[in-house]
Design goal:
The protein is built from three helices and four strands, in the order αββααββ. The protein has helices spanning 6-16, 28-39, 46-59; strands at residues 17-20, 23-27, 63-66, 74-76. The protein has one domain (6-76). 47% of the residues lie in helices and 21% in strands.
């Protein structure tokens, strides 16, 4: 399992954070893609990247939308 740098995770969360009337949320589909581009890591699994991003997003007070898999719409809130 790949360990991602916290600064990379924070940058991706800030770049992908959407502010709506219901609060901030981060799409994992968008976040995982941005993390791959930023780090050049196209080998780590989507699950590993999404889990790392979700932990940081929740700690930053953002809701998380796990939409990186077809048909998935699971939402976690802090």
């Amino acid at each position: 399992m790949r360990s991602f740098e916290i600064i990379d995770l924070l940058c991706v969360i800030e770049a992908c954070k959407h502010d709506r009337s219901v609060g901030n949320f981060v799409s994992m589909a968008e976040g995982v893609e941005e993390l791959r581009v930023l780090t050049g890591d196209f080998v780590s699994s989507d699950d590993a990247a999404a889990n790392a991003l979700a932990a940081v997003a929740l700690a930053r007070g953002c809701s998380v939308v796990f939409d990186e898999q077809a048909g998935a719409e699971m939402v976690l809130t802090p």
